[in-house]
Amino acid sequence: MKRFIIALSLVLALPLSVMAADGSKIGSVDVQKVLLTSDAGKEAKEQLAQKASKYEAEKASKEGELKKLKGELESQGALLNDSARGAKERDYQQRLKEYQRFLKDAQDDLQAKNDEFTGKIVDEIVKVAQEFGKKNGFTAIFVKNETMIFLDPSADVTDAVLKAFNENRKK
Q1: CB–CB of 150/16 below 8 Å?
Q2: CA-to-CA distance for 138 and 64, rounded, in angstroms?
Q3: How many other β-carbons are positioned within 10 Å of the β-carbon of residue 134?
């Protein structure tokens, strides 16, 4: 499979080498770098961190309640009659299930928000990179590290696209 990918990459790169010999401009953009270092990426990361800290506070509160309830169950368990002990155990199990559901829901919500932010920002990055390519006479701009075997570092236009992306967001 690895040989197939390399062979396919070489076959696909052949027309690019012809274009490059023709004087065409080819570039690459490290989308991950733009995503992490752009103003929009930093804002999204901050919003996610704030949301995560709210969930973390709620998690700590729920853990405290569970520990208290478990402590009561352990200390009073021998003193309670069977029906009272059973009721306390059911209450503890119910709250434990709610806690586990809360953890899963919080994780799912954070993942969904991350995916939403990332999707929006990547779409904007692609648009800016396309505009940058057209404006600066590029024949092709590729996503860096996506099945590339070699690309001259001078073809990396990530910093220029990052600058254009941040300027575009300020407008």
Answers
A1: no
A2: 59
A3: 10
**Which residues are 138's β-sheet partners?**
25
Report yes or no: 148 and 111 within 8 Å, Cβ to Cβ: no
Q: CB burial class (10 A; 0-12, 13-18, 19+) of residue 161? A: buried
Q: What is the pLDDT along the chain (171 residues), one digit of tens a residue?
A: 434 344 334 334 444 444 445 567 899 999 999 999 999 999 999 999 999 999 999 999 999 999 998 888 888 867 778 888 888 889 889 999 999 999 999 999 999 999 999 999 999 999 999 999 999 999 998 988 777 767 788 888 989 999 998 988 877
CB 107 within 8 A of CB 56: no
- What percent helix, strand, coil does the chain show, rounded to 5? 80, 5, 15
| Per-residue tokens: 122 | 């990547």
How far is 43 from 13, CA to CA, in rounded Å? Answer: 37
- What letter represents residue 120's amino acid? K
Find the DSSP H helices in the chain: 2-21, 31-37, 39-76, 82-135, 158-170
For residues 9 and 146, what is the distance between their CA atoms, to the nearest angstrom?
10
Tokens of 135: 């404006």
